[in-house]
Amino acid sequence: MAAKAVTGYLVVALARLGIALGVASSGAAAAVIVDEPTVDHQPVECSVPEKNPRICSYVLDDGEVKRVRVYFRSDRQDAYYWSQMAFDGIQFCATLPVAEDHVQAIDYYVWAVDDEFQTTRTRPHEISMRQSSSCSYPVIDEDPERISHLVINATSVKQGNKVKDFEEKGVEQFVPAKKR
């Protein structure tokens, strides 16, 4: 009984370090390194006013990718909003709401978690909101189905009950943060 308790404690301790134990049929244990997901992302450098920016990333894992999100905010905000990124068969993508006219830039990063609860994220990136003539390669979404069914989640109760600095057009659901 004491050996099982020690073994269970060891498995939990190793799992916290990112090491999983595989037990062979002989009962011998072998350590396997469990890596966090890998996010391969080409930053979106600019977009154009009155259009929905689209963020896409390739996410790989040695197990299963469970969730991928894009966290974003206007250059005037402290707290981020987030949207779930959907797998399109090749990569994970999310469409952001249209920024209001006064927004000069959108800050964002991509976050992922796998089936071993290992997480990773990209460094923060900035999308400059320029006029179309000064933005060589705007990454925008014009798919009517996607741009009209956006779900935006708040990360702070201070963000209130509606999205700020972004137009509500296309936002089907806003999920405010809950008080703890």
Tally of individual domains = 2
Number of helices: 2
Task: Write down the overall geometry.
Answer: globular
- Beginning-to-end CA distance, first to last residue: 39 Å
Question: CATH H level of the largest domain: which superfamily?
Answer: Immunoglobulins
CATH topology of the largest domain: Immunoglobulin-like
CATH C-level category of the largest domain:
Mainly Beta
Q: Which CATH architecture of the largest domain?
A: Sandwich
Question: Low-confidence spans: pLDDT under 50, at least 5 residues?
Answer: 1-26
Biggest sheet character: 8 strands, mixed
Order of helices and strands: HEEEEEEEEEEEEEHEE
Q: Would you report the number of β strands? A: 15
Category from helices, strands and their pairing: mainly beta
Rg from alpha-carbon coordinates: 20 Å
Query: How helical, in percent, are the residues?
Result: 10-25%
Strand content: 35-45%
Give the averaged pLDDT, no decimals.
84
Give a structural overview.
This protein is mainly β and 180 residues long. It folds into two domains: 2-33, no CATH class; 38-175, Immunoglobulins (Immunoglobulin-like, Sandwich). It is 11% helix and 41% strand. It is built from two helices and 15 strands. It has helices spanning 2-16, 144-147; strands at residues 19-23, 29-33, 38-40, 46-47, 52-60, 65-74, 81-84, 86-87, 92-95, 105-114, 119-121, 125-129, 140-141, 150-154, 171-175. Strand 1 and strand 2 (29-33) form a beta hairpin. Mean pLDDT is 84; it is low at 1-26.
